[in-house]
Specification:
3 domains, 433 residues, 57% helix, Rossmann fold, binds adenosine-5'-diphosphate, binds magnesium ion, 21 helices, alpha/beta, six-stranded mixed sheet, 6 strands
């Protein structure tokens, strides 16, 4: 009790000190004072919303109190911050307690695949004989399976991008929900969609959200890794990746910065580059129509993409992801201010002031404003809310990052728009949207 009182006193002096708060909450947990611990974790998270240790603590605390739905919420947030074995186990237990046995089994299997020391006989029995099946089907490359994650964010976490969302819906979300209808029309499920546009506008985010939307696995393939680490072996590895995706279907296979492939081809010294591209293309061709593997790729430099990628059956949809328009910016501001201490915010005004900003720029402005508010709070000893004014001021200090991209893109539009490859960018530049 001494200790607890000392920590409480320390917190009285510096309420913003998350570490002291975490220590206090830990002590309260040891004494099974769960309600008090919960309050401490929650206060800590208001100050530092992405603090992993706090999220783990809160998840444990909810679990200890048998608050299963709350455990699900806390672990969802925790797993969004990063993989966490204990978080997955807590989540699986809560799901099992709520009768969601199938979901619980999935999460448990993910946990064990992530960290084999987490095997939990009791839980495994409860979930019905998954003890050994836990480790996914053996493949040549046991490491690869670890990279399949299950994102917990869905389309709602992505502001704007309606056209892209709809294209993806037609490729995988609707076909999964209306299998028979799509089969009756002989519509393809899965396939390839290439997203391109200026950096920071949500391509990577949307790819992860797609997997969350269909509650499927998500495999993000680092092409740089494939090319660098498996020289001579890249083709085999790439083949393994596609094989694995097939086994996990429906799922999303994501090639971020896919231009790395093309760049390696241009650099002839990198022998084998051509082979990797050919392998990649033949894997794409080899995916038959209803296997349910959605191959998403993204690039900030579409001009490096080989036209062979665009053939039917490969990336037959290339979608331009422009900077967010005003309604999208409103949404992005709102998303990034969620769960932050704010006063009344004039989103319309902020969106109006941030034309040309990418989603990442808006997020950076929020981060700046948060830092300022914290600095002020340290001085005044009071909680300082984020206000429209401080957010607008922070945005004023950010140089929108899409301008430079468009300067380059304009050259390609003007001098290299053969076959109308850059028509979408041209339209956008003309303000035709
Ligand atoms: N449309 C959006 N909605 C919400 N947040 C966004 C959006 N676009 C970008 N962001 C923020 O910016 C970060 C970087 O975006 P990212 O998806 O990596 O961009 P890209 O892949 O197009 O370069 C995201 O993690 C997110 O925080
Ligand atoms: Mg990206």
């Amino acid at each position: 009790m001494e200790e607890i009182r000392a920590l409480q006193q320390a917190l009285g002096v510096s309420p913003e000190n998350v570490h002291i708060r975490m220590l206090l909450a830990g002590k309260l947990m040891e004494r099974e004072m769960f309600q008090q611990a919960e309050a401490q974790y929650r206060t800590g998270l208001k100050i530092s919303p992405d603090e992993r240790e706090l999220l783990i603590g809160l998840s444990r605390c909810y679990a200890a109190q048998g608050k299963h739905s709350a455990t699900l919420e806390a672990t969802a947030y925790l797993l969004e911050v990063g993989p966490c074995g204990e978080g997955m186990i807590l989540r699986a237990r809560a799901m099992a307690a709520l009768g969601r046995i199938d979901d619980a089994r999935d999460v448990y299997l993910d946990a064990v695949a992530y960290d084999s020391t987490l095997v939990d006989e009791q839980l495994a029995d409860l979930l019905g004989g998954v003890r050994q099946a836990g480790t996914p089907e053996n493949t040549d490359d046991p490491e690869a399976i670890d990279a399949f994650e299950r994102p917990s964010i869905d389309f709602a976490a992505v502001g704007g991008m309606d056209e892209v969302k709809e294209a993806i819906n037609m490729r995988i979300v609707h076909p999964l929900r209306n299998r028979e209808l799509f089969e009756a029309y002989g519509k393809r499920m899965g396939g390839g969609v290439l997203l391109y546009g200026p950096p920071g506008c949500g391509k990577t985010l949307l790819a992860r959200a797609t997997a969350g939307e269909i509650r499927s696995r998500f495999y993000s393939v680092g092409l740089h890794d494939i090319l660098d680490m498996w020289i001579g072996n890249s083709e085999k590895h790439l083949h393994g990746v596609f094989e694995q995706a097939r086994r996990c279907a429906p799922c999303v296979l994501f090639f971020d910065e896919v231009d790395a492939l093309a760049a390696s081809r241009a650099d002839l010294r990198h022998s084998g580059g051509r082979n990797v591209i050919n392998q990649f293309l033949s894997e794409m061709d080899g995916l038959s129509s209803n296997e349910g593997v959605l191959v998403l790729a993204a690039t900030n430099t579409p001009w490096y993409i080989d036209s062979a990628f665009r053939r039917p059956g490969r990336f037959d949809r290339m979608i331009f992801v422009p900077p967010p328009d005003k309604p999208a910016r409103i949404e992005i501001w709102r998303l990034h201010l969620e769960n932050k201490p704010t006063g009344k915010i004039d989103l319309d005004k902020l969106a109006g002031q941030t034309k040309g900003f990418s989603g990442a720029d808006i997020r950076a402005a929020v981060d700046l404003a948060v830092e300022d508010a914290l600095a002020r709070a340290m001085k005044t000893g009071r909680r300082e809310l984020l206000e429209t004014r401080s957010l607008a001021a922070a945005a004023g200090r950010i140089v929108p990052s899409t301008t430079e991209w468009f300067a380059t893109a304009r050259n390609y539009v003007t001098y290299a728009n053969e076959g109308g490859a850059y028509d979408d960018i041209a339209n956008y530049l003309r303000g035709g949207r």
